Amino acid sequence: MAVDPALNADPSSDFEPLDAPAEGVPGVVDTTEGLREALDALRSGEGPVAVDAERASGYRYGQRAYLVQLRREGVGTLLIDPIAFEDLTAIGHALAGTEWVLHAATQDIPCLAEVGMRPAQLFDTELGGRLAGLPRVGLSAVLEYYLGVTLAKEHSAVDWSTRPLPEPWLRYAALDVELLIDLRDRMERDLAEQGKLDWARQEFDALTRFTGPPGPNDPDAWRRTSGMHRLRKPRALAALRELWLVRDAIARERDVSPGRVLPDSTLVDLAMRQPRDATSLAPDRAERSHSRQRRAEQGLLRYQGAWLGAIRAVQELAEDELPEPTKRGDGPPPPRAWADRDPGAAARLTEVRAGLAALSERVDVPVENLMQPDTVRRLLWRPPAQRDAEGLDAAAAEQGARPWQRELVVPLLVSAVERHP
């Protein structure tokens, strides 16, 4: 089990609020000379480096970094403005051979790589918290658990592309890395005591090769539109695809989040109704908030020619040019369809799901971290030709499962495949 939080904080007091950096709020590095000094400091520092990045999600197009925070022993905290420089490759070079400490690394790795920073080794305090069995793994919750301090998150959703950045935002950004290395050290001891440190190291090593989800250039990105399950007919799906592409082009040109051009729900409404003239563009139902309603009204009016043009283009498509209701992939069908299509596979899945639930309880690790659910489904839907432990282990490794995961989960797979051939 995870370490009792009472061992990490004074039980006689509430969590201590972390509301100001111990060394004050550093200035933003946005000049060549300032960057040169920062590089010299990082090279002379000791131990791991805490790293974080702030994006302008919901405001700007894409997921680029608008602020990078670094903290290292002997250096203190550095706030780097990546917009002021062509890239930050020099920082990556200065930290060569240094372990990076991040929280929820998959959120930051893609935007850091975009500016030339990529870790060769790392420690993820969010993933580490999952493996340690913590019930909540947000940064503030993990800091409370291990260090007895609480962290305010009031500026987590602000527009970080704003310049100059307000002082309260910079204070918040600096606090995100203030105790990250101390947190890493406490968590490492906890993982070691639970016998899970090697598991964590395998997971962290895999994260160094993480590239992120498909971007907007993915030809099927439009299928991730929220609410598209409401569309059943192929021509309505085609309308959504064309409207999505128009919205994406507008958002890219304006450098704003696509949702600020037109909310997903309005896009789906247009695809469903396919209005033929400007007087019919108004949606059938109002948006859930005043701000989204205002954006929907403004977006419909400002780009009404573009929306109507996309809908007209769809009317001219031949039947064989319409998209399929669901994307054809190489993976198994949805689990709800297994019983009808392959009762044996359905029985295997039911057995392994029960086994994983029991295993999760025993080792105090979430089921989804024991092995990727997609990997489990693939191995059970179409087991490899060699269906023994060696064959299933090799197939799981090919799917990216780590050694510790295979050691725990492959016996469950073998048993299910043997019992339900």
Explain this structure to me?
The chain has 421 residues and is α/β, with parallel strands linked by helices. It folds into three domains: 5-207, Ribonuclease H-like superfamily/Ribonuclease H (Nucleotidyltransferase, domain 5, 2-Layer Sandwich), CATH 3.30.420; 221-321, Orthogonal Bundle (DNA polymerase, domain 1); 335-419, Orthogonal Bundle (DNA polymerase, domain 1). The chain is built from 19 helices and eight strands. The chain has a six-stranded mixed β-sheet with strand order 2-5-4-3-6-7, sandwiched between helices. Strand 4 (65-73) and strand 5 (76-80) form a beta hairpin. It starts with 15 loop residues before the first strand and ends with a helix. InterPro entries: 3'-5'_exonuclease_dom, Exo_C, HRDC-like_sf, HRDC_dom, HRDC_dom_sf, RNase_D-like, RNaseH-like_sf, RNaseH_sf.
